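dumping the sequnces here before i forget
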Amino acid sequence: MNARRASWLVVGLLLTALALAALGVCVGSAGFENLIGPLLNPEADPADTAMAQQIVWEIRLPRTLGAWGAGALLGLAGAVAQGLFRNPLADPFLLGSASGASLGVALALAAMGGGAGMLGAGMMNSGVAVSVFSSSVWVRLGLTGAAFGGAVLAVLLTLLLSRGVQHTLRLLLAGVVVGVVLGAMTHLVLLFSPESLQAMQAFMLGSTSFVGWTACVLMVAVWALCALAAWLLARVLDGLSLGDATARSLGLPLGPMRAALVAVLALATGTAVAQTGLIAFVGLAAPHLVRSMVKTTSARLMLLASCMGGALLMAADTLARWLIAPQELPVGVLTAVLGGGYLLWLMQRNTRVSRGAGL
Amino acid sequence: MNAIAIEARGLSARLGDAHILHNITLALPRARWTCIVGPNGAGKSTLLKALAGLLPHSGGVALLGRPLADWPSRQRAQQLAWLGQNESSGDDLTVWDVAMLGRLPHQAWLSPPSAADHAAVERALRATQAWDWRARSLGQLSGGERQRVLLARALAVEAQVLLMDEPLANLDPPHQADWLDLVQALVREGKTVVSVLHEIAMALHADELVVMAQGRITHQGLCAEPTTHRALEAVFDHRIEVHALQGQWVALPRATSSLVKPHHAD
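..and the predicted 3d for all of it:
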């Protein structure tokens, strides 16, 4: 029954994403009528039609699909983190991996001096500008690699400080400390490279406005890779849900599989952060929302959390563009406000439930 | 066939800085139910974990005549099943999914559960009377119901040796009696059961008792032997007495005079 329910939920979330994609393409600073009119009217001015096509194809469609990709990556990373660390509060931000990824991107940009350096003079001569807005494949891969490296180092640092994953409180405290320290280091790096400050500011607030087709394809490709790896490792997460001793007694090689899951977590977080900046709470909320609807195995939970994360970020992105149109809010700010409220509601509900159980 | 299921020689273990087990040597017979008993902090659970290879230790442990370290992990998991104390939640998994985890050692990495796996899980869930809740999630069950599902998970392994740490936790008396029947049936099938129990009355139904205090074994012997009863009484500071009652051994608490105040009716 749960399997059937999970399948229906996947279908529902994908249909929601499709509807949100259609809506997302229509919402933005160029009004709906200015866009749809030239596209649907064969007698419209060819210049207006070309402009409308360019807005839809070059800007809105990639950023809308990119929002799904980033949300799916963060949802997947959240489900992996919560299963791996057996903690419902674990998410890419709480473990410091998002801050590590952000530091990686800032360091990469600073090392390139806002355009030179990392990719070599040849790349610069060929006219490729290195910035968070760049749509060059090499720049996107370079930034993703830097974010991945930063995320891996941050998770390892968190694990080192917490001396393993056995003590939840120590793990979360270590994650918070690493997140704060790496966040401060990111600001320090930006202080010394003022040329990348403005772009990084938008990046730090989280935004899908830099997402072009390259970033979009990269995110979907990495999501497919991470989802496959996570699916292959899902049995470990199921085993771990009964505790370390039981998982080991079942013959599961926990060491290498934990390392592989940390790599999946870091790659998913790093890729999302490198394309869209810091977008909080999607990784935390997506698995929780799925769990409130269906109880299922880790394999299905990770797939569902991905679909939920994608739909959530698409919805938040559309809302961020519509709320103060023709201006737009950074989507990271919106997810932080909505996600923070959701977390508070979750905590209050859990307190009520435990009080009720105590009576 | 080796007559010894698990053997330990010079087994010592630490938890942090504390030395918990001191140079333990013991042999647990095959096709028997052995119960490890002793006061709180005696090292019973640590010993069971060390015997299962789930805890770093010095000294040697052999499973079915072969050193534990020489067993490939999957083969070892097929031969030795573990039911831990306070196993963490897994609240999102259904009862069926939890029991199916017991079949992991028998499944190739990506292969789906076979008909034999399904049959083993059904047998285990029926044996613990958890079959009717197979579609419910673990989080929806009471403590006792959850314990029966976790027991089913351990039974589903269908291992030769079953180690259980406090398996009666949260079980009501009828289900404790069911557990007893289950263990005795397993032993009749030739399986070896080793359990840590706090319920001395239940432990006295075992074939053998291992009595522990302060990280050492003070006695190992048949449950019916008077020397075992005396060792059991001694390890609990003679605050219990073992008596025969209707063909069974029972342990009754013995109140000391300092704790018993004369009752004056008003």
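The longest strand of chain B covers residues 4-15.
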